[in-house]
Every structure is written in C-alpha cells, then in structure tokens.
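In response to a reviewer's request, we include the raw inputs and outputs for one of the modeled complexes. The two entities were modeled together in a single run.
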Amino acid sequence: MKKQIEQLIQAALKQLVLGGVIPQEAMPVPKIERTKDSRHGDFATNIAMALARPARTNPRELAQRLLDALPASDLIERCDIAGPGFINFTLTATAYHSLIPAIIEQGHGYGRSELGKGKRIQVEFVSANPTGPLHVGHGRGAAYGSVVADLLQAIGFDVHREYYVNDAGRQMDILATSVWLRYLELCDEALTFPANGYRGDYVWDIAATLHRDHGEAYRHDAETVFHNIPADEPAGGDKEAHIDGLIDRAKQLLGDNRYRFVFELGLNTILDDIRDDLGLFGVNYDEWYSERSLTESGSVTRAIERLRSAGHLYDKDGAVWFRSTDYGDEKDRVVIRDNGQTTYFASDIAYHMDKLERGFDRVIDVWGADHHGYVPRVKAALQALGDDPSKLDVLLVQFAILYRSGEKVQMSTRSGQFVTLRELRKEVGADAARFFYVMRKCEQHMDFDLDLAKSQSNDNPVYYVQYAHARICSVFQQAAEQSISVEDDPTAVDYALLSESHEQALITSLARYPEIVEAAALHEEPHQLTHYLRDLANDFHTYYNAHKFLIQDTALRNARLQLILATRQVVRNGLNLLGVSAPEKM
RNA sequence: GCGCCCGUAGCUCAGCUGGAUAGAGUACCGCCCUCCGAAGGCGGGGGUCACAGGUUCAAAUCCUGUCGGGCGCGCCA
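The model returned the following structure tokens for the whole complex.
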C-alpha cells in the first residue's frame, strides 16, 4: 500500500524533473510515512519541503505542482497540502476493504516479501562456551538472534543460522580438569577443589557418569595429583598458576587418550545439553561450527600466513603480533603466543575469513555487549586480509540485569550461582521468555524481573496478544455451536458495511503489518514487531468490547467475521515470526 | 585515563532513523459484563525528553562539551 503511494510520487517527481522544475541531481528517494494523526490523512510526505531549496521555490507551491503532476489512482481519496508543506494522502475506503480478502488469501504469506532477493546472510548467535549450561544472559542473545534471522528470512534473504563452538583452549581444559577432580572426589580422594575450577552441579553429574561407566580406571591418588603444584589463591598463591599446574598434571597422569576422553565427555555432555535447551526454546541452527576444526583443517595457519605475507605481522617478546593499529584498533594483538600456541583471536580471524569464503553476502555476529572492544580487531583482520569489513555487522546485545525480590542477582558460571535458561523456560514458558527478551532493542540495558516473569501475571504483554488470538478463535467456536453460518468466500462479502471507526482503525493496523516486518528486519529490531502486535491486539480488544460479531444481520456479520479472521491471521503471522505460539484456548 | 552503549511520566520502555499537540504498559483513582472469554474495554491525573551550546524551515532524534549509570581496555576464551 505504502509502496504504491511511493510509486505515484516517484512518477510525479519525474514529471517535474522533465519540466525543469527540480534539478535532476537533487532527486532524493521520496520518503513517505504513516501519519500519527488521522486528521492528516493516512500517509504524508515531506518531499516538497526537502526539495524547496534546490528548486528555488517555497514548499507549499512546490507541493501544489507535485500534486498537479500526480497520476490518477483509485487508491487515493484526496490529497492535501498542510502545515509548512506536507502533502497528506487520504486513501479510499475500497483501498482498505480489498485488503481483508487479500490477507485471508495470502494467509501465512501475508507480510512476507522478496525484498532480500535470495541474498545469503549468515547469522551467528549465542556461541556460548560449552563449559556449562546456558544461563538467562545467553537467553537474550538466543531470542534476539533467532528472531532477527527469522525476520530476514521473511523478507526474502537466504539465512544461515550458526553456532560457533569454542571447543578448544584453556577454558575447556579447566572444565576437563574440573570434571576429573570431581571424579576423584567420587573415588573418595580427599582434595581441595581449585578456586578457579568450575563448581556447578553439572560438573558433578559429568564426573558421576565417568565414575559409573569406568569405575576407578581414571583414579590417581590425590597426593600424586597435587604434588608440587603451585599454591592456590586461598592458600596465598596464584589461582591461575594453580589451575594450569593441575591441567598439566591431568594430561601427564592420564595420558593423551584418557585425558581426551574426559575432555570430550565434558564437551559433548554440555553441548548436547545446550543444543537440547535451545531447541526447546525454539532456537535451531543450520550449523554448529567447531573452533577446533579450524586448527585441524589448517585454516588458522593459513590465515596467519596470509597476514604474514601481506606484511601485517611482526615478532616481539617471543610472540607474533598482528598490527591491527594500522586499521584503527587501539593496540596490536598477539596471534601466536611465546609458547607457540595460537590465540583465540587467531582462530577468530580464521573463522571470519572462512565465513566470507563460504560466500555469504553479509555476515551478522550477535555478541554480548561486553565483547564490544573486540569488534575493531576483527574488522581490522578482515581488512588486512583484503576482505570487505562492511560485510560484517556485529550486533551487540546488552546484558539483561536480573532482579529477584527487587535486588540484583549476581551471576557467575564458576561459582555455579546463576539462573539457567532451562530454569527460566520451565517457570515462565518459552513463549513469555522469548517475547519478553525481544521487547526491547538490543542496545538497551534490560531489567529482567524474575519474579514478574515467573509470576504468570497479566503484566506480561505476551498474554495480551495471545488472548486476542484465542478470543477470535472463541468467536468462531461460538458461531459453530450456535449454528450461525459463516461465509467462507472472503471475496463474496460487502466490506463497505464496515463503517465503524473501530473497524477502520483495525484495518489500518492490518495494512501496516508488512511495513513493520520490513522495518524490523532491515533495522534488526524485533521490538518493533512486539510493539506492533500489542497495538494490534489493543485495536481488536477495543473493537470486541464495542461491537458484537455474531449478529442477526447476515451481511454485516460476514463482513465483521472476515475482518477478525484477517486479524487472527496477522496476529498468528506476527507471533510466528517471534517464535511464540498462537493458542486457540488459554 | 581511553573506547563503546545508555539517560524520555513514580517504575519498565516506545518514539516509525530530522517532521505536525512527546506516546504505551505498569502503578494510582473512577466507571463498564442479563451481552461472542473481564487474561478485556472506557475515562483521569502524571513530562525542564539529564544539562549547556550548535546545525535548519523543523531537534527527544544530528554535532560538540559537561554530568550521571553500565560495560570493556590479557600472550583468557
């Protein structure tokens, strides 16, 4: 609808350019928007004001010339010039009425488009270290990333959803060692668990699996394990040196194969849990991409060699550095440590190089905002490799600050004191949690009130929207029970009967839906959709209270029933894009 | 100290990316089921858009500075 108006204005502008009224080079893309106030018609454009200066005329005069050049259309009831030079368009009633059968016929497809023209976009999100279960902090990235992906797909992009699995590196070694130490405790070895180890219950669970399946095959006595290990922090030592010593000891005592086994057991158990958890949260991936595979395939080495041959690397203090400051980073970064191991950053360079080599037109990374300092160096690396860094967009999601009983909840994976995503999902349900998470734009800090979310109260707007859907279903249920006939051909209905202001407001909202989906997708702002659905539900509930649908007048009844049928379709489509269910009963 | 994000009603947030009289939810107050689901509707009060300059026909929105809050500045991942 908006598109059609845009085309009309474009045609009029062309006329004026040909007539020499507007200089060719001043031609902007006409911007048209919905009016806030219905007294200003349905759509308005500021084009005359924007062009008044280059056209050396005043805005209202230019607006008039534009209207004179506007092609005739049966969409438009009338056009007015208002205020400093706005042009307001009022659409005809039939333009709106024809929308109702169109929505019903398009069904699931209403709101979808081919705007993306099949371009390939990769969306990588969550990618939490597999060192423990997902917590509520990850939930926001999960909900946000998956809805952004779904939105982009809805407007015609070919979307690839990916989870980057950090299955290499020191954190994973700490996990493996933590599991082993807990296992030794299950074997009745007396030991002091390291301050820097992972202390969550899930570590005990994995250790218990090892103990159950393999008895004491992995047992070594505690004295041997801790012999000559640097002191831990509580004992006045360094907790990092302590845990590193224990990792080395584990590898040495267990040997490569058995150490590997414990490591894999921990990794796979947790990864299965994460995959399961996300699936139940309505988040699914096309690919789980292993960091380790980058090393094993030689990609990391290849990326480093490419940087080296392009002259972006240098040696200092026994390490190899990437001169990222050449591309705006605040300091240079190590890619190979003095112990010969590549850094996490080196893997990430290889990973992003690999993403672009896979042929994506655009790559989106959804990161926690605490990683924002990392963005310049990744972009720098892409630039140094000769890739186009503008193909990469990093969307930073601010943390959700949790509140319980009015107080902030402190979270730490190490201490094991956190609220898991699973726990949240079980208590409030995936629907409410997802809707709640995407209600705010990603750069906004979010207060997540656990008591409120868990309370199943009406404060949560998801119920309000779902209720609108259930209510409409209920109307048709009533019609069936009372044997009231419902016209099943949406084109055989006289929509001109829908003359109430509530009806017009509702139809206008339905017409906005495709514009909302497009804007939400292009700006990566799912919250636009949640706000829209709230407004739409409000329009419906207001209508419901003001007028009755199951009435004697057959013609009016059928028109109203088709209208709420179209409304149900749009509510359903919108909730579907958010990954939220549209229940018929609640 | 430097960098990124944020500052709008008591609270939680929108504000269509520069437009017309700044809006919702919640909380508070008052109404509305003999009626398709009251998980609903209607009405009311509540604002120095943190502050100060600047840009222009037009600024909550863009620029600069100040103040306040969050986060980040490892040869961790």
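As requested, we also summarize the result in words. Chain A has a mean pLDDT of 91. Chain A has 20 helices and 15 strands.
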